[in-house]
Design goal:
Blueprint lengths: L1 E5 L4 H12 L3 E6 L6 H11 L4 E4 L5 H10 L4 E4 L6 H6 L1 H21 L4 E7 L23 H22 L7 E7 L1 E3 L18 H9 L6 E4 L11 E2 L1 E3 H16 L4 E6 L5 E2 H12 L5 E4 L8 E2 L4 H7 L7 H14 L5
Parallel strand pairs: 1-2, 1-4, 2-3, 4-5, 5-6, 6-11, 7-10, 8-13, 9-14
Antiparallel strand pairs: 9-12
Helix pairs in contact: 1-2, 1-8, 3-5, 5-6, 7-11, 9-11
The structure holds nicotinamide-adenine-dinucleotide and uridine-diphosphate-N-acetylglucosamine.
Length: 342
């Protein structure tokens, strides 16, 4: 298939581009480099030995997007582009709604005008809010999101679903096919150590914070609370290797090919690890010490969040293959080889 990957220079997009190309798909990337660098795409080319058509453009730039669709006939779009920092979204809600919702609206309009109505969308476990059940299945009702970032994901899921519903109601012969992928906590990096997560400034997320402590860039990790109702008091999450996550998108393409309508899949491992579990696993996997202190809870955090990935297993034949050791090893390998990112 010929696939438009929006945000393909980013963390998950670059890893997905590798898997798509390795599986024989043709990838075209559009990115405005607001949170990434063109070097990431060059590295993807190096890993795959392929040439990638890359457009530097903002999704809100309709003229640029129309040109991309005039130049290419796409079978599907995998839509990663968006802003993703939870804390920042609270202080800059307009920017989050404008970029995530506004950018997607222009993309969807240009797609439908060009007859490409197949899309795989990067959603998040954050749409479950404080989940009503653990492990979380796709039937778990969506919860109240505590921040604008999460609300953009939840709203976009609904906007996409409405498009399909209207097509069915209107008897459209070419209705939208939409796969909503709810990611749990992506970590790790490609085995080559050539691509990985390259956060700007001090990382908000646990694994990049740990790797920067390991590299000596940060003095110690602050664990946000040890009084949760979990086996050791620290927060439990479903960490998933980014290469497994990337492969989930390949499998999602098979749903698109089967004209799936709207489908939702959790992409997680189904296993929960606490912050202390991760610290210990990282230390053991890499033979390093991670100094830490216990701090107060981070506002908005929940105690436990992990998936049931059963639906993706049954319907897509997908399951995460990498365990916590590989996640910790590959995260460190990337950080070690690229101390200053790209
Ligand atoms: P990322 O920031 O590394 O990648 C996003 C890419 O989109 C960046 O390269 C950025 O420059 C680009 N971009 C942003 N706005 C754009 C615009 N208007 N036009 C063109 N390009 C634009 O983030 P990621 O971790 O790779 O996440 C990819 C997607 O997955 C995002 O939608 C994110 O919200 C979602 N997601 C991520 C996580 C996670 O933990 N990383 C978890 C759940 C969901
Ligand atoms: C965060 C986002 C969530 C997003 C997800 C994936 C928040 C509140 N939630 O989830 O919306 O979908 O990332 O990108 O930001 N921790 C520490 N010390 C740190 C960093 C984290 O103890 O310095 C703990 C957290 O309290 C949590 C766990 O580590 O228990 C994982 O945190 P993080 O990596 O930020 O992911 P989430 O909070 O699960």
């Amino acid at each position: 298939m010929k696939i438009l990957v929006t945000g393909g220079a980013g963390y998950i997009g670059s890893h997905t581009a590798v898997e798509l190309i390795n599986a024989g798909h043709e990838v075209v990337i559009v990115d405005n480099f607001s949170n990434s660098k063109p070097e990431a795409v060059r590295r993807v080319e190096k890993i795959t030995n392929a040439e990638i058509r890359l457009y530097e453009a903002d999704l809100r730039d309709r003229t640029a997007l129309e040109q991309i669709f005039a130049d290419n006939l796409f079978d599907c779009c995998i839509h990663f582009a968006g802003m993703k920092a939870v804390g920042e979204s609270v202080s800059k809600p307009w920017e989050y709604y404008d970029n995530n919702i506004g950018g997607t609206m222009v993309l969807l309009d240009v797609m439908r005008k060009n007859g490409c109505k197949n899309i795989i969308f990067s959603s998040s476990a954050t749409v479950y809010g404080s989940p009503a059940e653990i492990p979380i299945t796709e039937n778990c009702p969506k919860g109240k999101c505590t921040n604008p970032y999460g609300r953009t994901k939840s709203m976009l899921e609904e906007i996409l679903t409405d498009l399909h519903t209207a097509d069915v109601k209107n008897g459209d012969k070419n209705p939208w096919n939409i796969v909503l992928l709810r990611y749990f906590n992506p970590v790790g990096a490609h085995k080559s150590g050539l691509i990985g997560e390259d956060p700007k400034g001090i990382p908000n997320n646990l694994m990049p914070f740990i790797t920067q402590v390991a590299a000596g860039k940060l003095g110690f990790l602050t664990i946000f609370g040890n009084d949760y109702d979990t086996h050791d008091g620290t927060g439990v999450r479903d960490y998933i290797h980014v290469v497994d996550l990337a492969k989930g998108h390949l499998k999602a393409l098979s749903a698109i090919e089967k004209k799936c309508g709207v489908v939702i899949y959790n992409l997680g491992t189904g296993r929960g690890y606490s912050v202390l579990d991760i610290v210990r696993a990282f230390e053991e996997a890499n033979g390093l010490k991670i100094p830490y202190k216990i701090g107060p809870r981070r506002p908005g955090d929940i105690a436990v969040c992990y998936s049931s990935p059963e639906k993706a297993g049954k319907e897509l034949g997908w399951a995460a293959e990498n365990g916590i050791v590989e996640m910790c090893r590959d995260s460190w390998n990337w950080q070690k080889n690229n101390p200053n990112g790209y």
